[in-house]
Amino acid sequence: MKPEFVNIYHDTLIYSMEAHKSQLFKISKLPFFDHFYEVGKILMEVNAEIEVIQAGILHDVPEDTEITIENISNRFGNKIANTVKEVTSKKNKSSDYMNRKLEKILSLQTCSIEALQVSIADRIDNLNRLHKDFILAGDSIWISFGNGKKEEIKQLHETAIGIFADRKYESEVVYKLFQKVAEEYKRLVRGAIFD
Q1: Which residue(s) pair with 31 in the sheet?
Q2: CA torsion angle for 66, 42, 81, 26 (degrees, to 10)?
Q3: Staple partner for 48: which of 52, 71, 99, 134, CB 3.0–4.6 Å?
Q4: 11, 34, 49, 63: which one is catalytic?
């Protein structure tokens, strides 16, 4: 990371950490901070632009906290806020979990290149976290997906990876991220998580 971006990166991490300060993962009980830190790290590893890294760190803030896209725009600017908005699921908790997730995944077919990069990095960490949770809790992890069944979750991941594959040549960063997500998914399949 360029030295001039270190303070920007740090400020974004602190903002997101404050927003998610009391949230823990259901299975591992790790602080939610771990997720957006990993998403930012994945984006840094493939040399994504600083604004994409920031959006990756902030991507769950409007979905999981009271902070709005407008708040993010006021603090970090429209470019970052618009990317976050593209990757944020609607807050309609009354709708079916699987339908909400499928709608968000299908939107990846036409989203911006920045939103695609954040979405792939998010998927990489989610797959890695799913693998770790499976090691900790076995098949009981599927309860944390609402009424989602294992086969439906597998289908959601495969749909997302198929969209990523279709768009993998749109930028060097997307291609590098696609290679990482494909490998992470293969690791899950080899680990028999979806059997």
Answers
A1: 24
A2: -20
A3: 52
A4: 63
Helices (H) and strands (E) in the chain, counts: 10, 0
Q: How far apart are CA 178 and CA 51, in angstroms?
A: 20
Sorted by sequence, the CB contacts under 8 Å of residue 9 that are 6+ apart come out as 1, 40, 50, 53, 54, 57
Question: What pLDDT, in 10s, does the model give residues 101-143?
Answer: 888 899 999 999 999 999 999 999 999 988 888 888 888 777 7
pTM for the full predicted model: 0.92
Strand partners, 24: 31
Q: What is the pLDDT of residues 61-95, one digit of tens each?
A: 998 889 999 999 999 999 999 999 999 876 665 56
C-alpha Rg value of the chain to the nearest Å: 16
Q: Are 81 and 52 in contact (CB under 8 A)?
A: no
Does residue 64 carry a catalytic annotation? yes
| Residue 65 DSSP label | S
63 tagged catalytic? yes
